[in-house]
Write a structure and sequence with these properties.
Blueprint (H helix, E strand, L loop, with lengths): L4 E8 L7 H17 L4 E3 L11 H4 L6 H10 L6 H13 L2 E10 L2 E9 L5 E6 L22 E3 L2 E7 L6 H8 L5 E6 L6 H18 L2 E6 L4 H7 L3 H4 L9 E3 L15 E8 L1 H7 L45
Parallel strand pairs: 1-2, 2-3, 7-8, 8-9
Antiparallel strand pairs: 1-11, 3-4, 4-5, 6-7, 9-10
Helix pairs in contact: 1-4
Length: about 325
């Protein structure tokens, strides 16, 4: 049974740029470390497995072929032994895990968020609805079916990746489903210090507007990794800073010191009673909404590229299909 207090953890660590096996090992180690500290809800960065496609930010398209193919080879299939390993860890430690992966679906890659419940079941697989700028060379688009809040052992959980938080209707879609804990994912080690500042503003605003807790994780690159990704010092600057791993209350306050550089795990206790405290004054999808003036049309149908129609059985030979 869920208690009034949930201990949450946001993980900021570096991936293994050589492939998914090493990064999955780091994920499993971080789950164990956070669980040892009492965490019941653990969030990892955007497309953390095997790694965020930093190459797409610093290389021109004509030079992206080889690293793009390597990312496809190392990307995660859902389900797979890798997702099963995370599910097993979640079940063993009784924790809810939100993990960002590069998902391979045949010939396409997607920015995917996976929510594993405390019993190890995959509660949600969703894809970023619109890759941002350089990312459109790497990932396909998600659909409205993934804009979904799921019931978990720690409460109603929703998730968005990076600049999806700048799509107010995407956020509102989760708010209308009464999200209690929001998992935010950003790549980290990107753009520079202004990116971290923007993330903080965005996470605090969503917590206030949604009346929910926000647990946000950004990634980290070591200096050796940055040098490996590109030899030009000017372009290396584009892969530093931009980190803001944080945990925010429904009142928009930091519940622990954010992590803006280096590796670490932010941990804080979420007093779930604060949701009602916030919403009694301002419930964006309840008493503060004006649905007769403004409302959201959310298409929840999965996007498919093939539609089939079965032949209709009939007793009239003249109406039978020609190939019957």
């Amino acid at each position: 049974m869920r208690t009034d207090t949930i201990r949450a953890a946001a993980v900021q660590i570096a991936p293994d740029l050589t492939g998914r096996a090493g990064t999955i090992e780091r994920v499993l180690n971080a789950i164990a470390e956070a669980a040892d500290k009492g965490a019941q809800f653990i969030v990892f960065p955007e497309t953390f497995v095997p790694y965020y496609p930093y190459f797409s930010f610093v290389l021109p398209p004509v030079q992206q072929g080889a690293p793009h193919l390597e990312l496809m080879r190392e990307a995660v299939v859902v389900p797979s032994p890798e997702t099963q390993a995370v599910a097993d860890a979640a079940r063993k430690r009784g924790v809810v895990v939100v993990l960002g992966v590069n998902e391979r679906d045949h010939g396409s890659l997607y920015n995917t968020q996976l929510i594993f419940d405390a019993d190890g079941t995959l509660a949600l697989k969703r894809r970023k609805i619109t890759p941002t700028y350089h990312e459109r060379m790497v990932w396909g688009q998600g659909d409205g079916a993934g804009l979904k809040v799921v019931d978990t052992a720690v409460g109603r959980v929703g998730a968005l990746a990076c600049w999806e938080h700048y799509n107010p209707l995407a956020r509102y879609a989760l708010m209308t489903q009464h999200e209690e804990i929001h998992a935010g994912h950003f790549p980290g080690s990107l753009v520079g210090p202004i990116f971290g500042e923007q993330i903080e503003v965005t996470m605090r605003h969503h917590a206030l507007e949604a009346g929910c807790f926000v647990v946000n994780a950004t990634g980290w690159l070591t200096e050796d990794q940055i040098t490996t990704l590109h030899p030009d010092p000017k372009l290396q600057k584009a892969m530093r800073d931009g980190c803001m791993t944080c945990i925010i209350s429904p009142e928009g306050r930091h519940l622990t010191d954010p992590i803006t550089e280096g590796e670490g795990i932010a941990i804080a206790d979420l007093d779930m009673r604060l949701i009602a405290k916030r919403k009694r004054m301002m419930d964006s999808v309840g008493h503060y909404a004006r649905p007769e003036l403004l409302s959201l049309n959310h298409d929840t149908r999965p996007a498919v590229t093939r539609h089939t129609q079965d032949a209709v059985a009939t007793d009239d030979p003249e109406e039978a299909p020609e190939n019957a």
